[in-house]
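User:
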Amino acid sequence: MSLVLAIAATLQVATITPPAAPTTAVGFETARRYASNATQGVAVGPHDLYAVSNFNIVRLDKKTGEKRGEWTGQRSRFPHINSCAVIAKDLVCASSNFPGTPHVSTVEFFDPMTLAHRKSVSLGLGTGSITWVDRKDGFWWAMFANYDAKGGEAPRDHRHTTLVKFDDQWRRLEGWALPASILERIKPMSISGGGWGPDGRLYLSGHDLPELYVVALPNGGGVLDHLETLPMEAEGQAIDWDESDKGTLYGITRRSREILRMTAPTSVKR
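Assistant: Predicted structure:
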């Protein structure tokens, strides 16, 4: 092999080898389990939990776990509600046509008490399949998933998963890619859940692995900074921080469809 080819091969290996993911041994501890039918994720309010399962949302009493209400939408119109979050006076949900293509993404607003559907915001085509929505610093934030196989829209793949910042009129302001250390963990799928934590950092969950990726907006460039990876019991899927109980995160386990109340490490609470 010539010197030029050897150098080229070395550079190629360096390019495709992802950096090691930063990890922390101390993770989230499961404090309570709730029986539910959740398949996609969970949302949490001051007094309620919401089990999310595609075109079905069930409201549960957070204290007792008793069912308080249920909404079932038209499957053709709401094929894949992936996650929800209680934001101000609305239950705000990320909805798409996954695994259909081309990707169509909407944000759905519900009454958090009656679960009546209030309105839809259509985000159209071309970015990916929306998986979660959150609100911070006067802006909307959303993650658009892309996949290698099922639900994928060529030529995009998992590497095209994107965090997008919107204004109040849902106009795109900025966008960020995921670092290689996270992409290597989630492939061939994508990011399923996420939300801003009580410490101001962004927490992301994948589709299968029981871990959270803690990221921050970069000081420069367009790739999120991967700060650490925290273990948890929930095997990915949609998560939600309890804003009424600092340091408490909710997720689900697909093995039993239970909702999990998890306590964050002390470092996260501060």
